[in-house]
Amino acid sequence: MPAQPSQAIDSDLAARVAAQAASADGRAGARLSATIADVFADVRDRLDERTRVAINRLAETTVAAIERDIAGHAARLLEARGFPDAAALLAGNRAMTLPRLVESGLMRDPGVMGEMIAQARVDLIDEALAAQRAPGGTATLAAALAESADGVVRARAVAYLVADSRRRLAHADRRAELPEAMHERLAWWVAAALRERLGHGVPPEVDRALSEASQRSIAAHDDGERVEAAAAQLAAAIDPVAGALPQLLIDSLGEARTDLFVALLAHALGIEFAEARGLTLDADSDRLWLALRALGIERHLIAQVGFVLCEADRARDVETLPDSLDRVATLAPETAARAVAPLTLHRDFRAAVRALARSPRA
Question: How far apart are alpha carbons 178 and 225 in whole angstroms?
Fold first, then answer.
């Protein structure tokens, strides 16, 4: 005997309520797991509120900017192709995809989030360095490089200053300057989340418009415009001799140009920018001081770098700095160089070595 209409409605309602209850139960379980993890996390692994806010803001503005590009262009394509309803939904979309990307776990990607976390921390260090600058202080290093008699240095310095100014002037709208592969990954995530928001039964024309809009966003991304790339090119153009490097490093921090400090360090050590940035942000070890010692830099100069960074980076402990410097200063530069030599290897090679070390032999 077929079900009565009221029975069918009741059955459908019961199914929806059960699904909502299951979803709520899952969220409650995930929330409890996150809370427990936070309770037992080492204090050194916890973000202070200022850093947490900066990272969240950078993630929000980055995803929102990519979303605006893709949704806006896809809407224009659909309007022109005779799909006004889908076009209107996309055109009216405002920062709707980030919660879904977080919920799905995609935003937990170590590469994408690692880059955003590092850039947010560099931003905060630069803000603190700028606040520490003596009243009336001028950016003499940047000015000197931009007026260099060496045409290559001069051109690279101007390009760096333009990129750095663009980053700083963005303020609250600052978006992460992601490497090309990470930008592409994020663009496809956003497109998929937009598609999902359009509901079931999306026609092929909508998929095609979202795909074309994503490819347009990816093609428009220029790695060379990133401030990190500009800083790396400037460091290579300067190519400082060993005797000039310490003062350049100190001056770059004094002018709140952490990216230039990192680029100079990376160039001197022969490592990737991301590796040098990791050294600069590593507040739990002596790796940065070891790297500076490997370059033959003396203790008093390493101390200048150390005290400036300790004042600007809340993660660093200035009280432990003297002992760390004493340990490092006793090492010959050649010994320190051997300690940081693995950083010169390709990151995938080092990751493979670590993976094998974690896996016992059969």
Answer: 11
Query: From the centroid of its chain, how far is CA 98?
Result: 16
Amino acid at 188: W
pLDDT tens figures, 173-206: 889 999 999 999 999 999 999 999 888 778 899 9
- Range 208-223 average pLDDT: 96
Q: How far is the C-alpha of 226 from the C-alpha of 176, rounded, in Å? A: 9
pLDDT band, residue 170 (cuts 50/70/90): low
Q: Contacts for 211-216 with beta carbons within 8 Å, 24 or more apart? A: 212/73, 212/74, 212/77, 213/69, 213/70, 213/71, 213/72, 213/73, 213/74, 213/77, 214/70, 214/187, 214/188, 214/190, 216/69, 216/73
Q: How many residues does the chain have?
A: 362
Quick one: average pLDDT of 154-163?
95
Supply the pLDDT for residue 27.
61
On whether the CB atoms of residues 270 and 316 are closer than 8 A, the answer is no
Within the chain, where are the H helices? Answer: 5-40, 49-80, 84-91, 98-104, 110-132, 140-146, 151-169, 180-197, 204-220, 227-238, 245-254, 258-269, 273-281, 287-294, 299-312, 321-329, 333-340, 347-358
Tell the burial category of 213 from Cβ atoms under 10 Å away from its Cβ (0-12, 13-18, 19+): buried
Instruction: Give this prediction's pTM.
Output: 0.85
pLDDT at residue 15, rounded to an integer: 67
User: pLDDT category, 358, cuts 50, 70, 90?
Assistant: confident
Q: Which residues of 146-180 are buried (b: 16+ CB within 10 A; e: fewer)?
A: bebeeeebeebbbbbbebbeebeeeeeebbbbbbe
Neighbour tally for 143: CB within 10 Å: 13
What is the spatial distance between Cα 289 and Cα 280, in angstroms, rounded to a whole number?
9
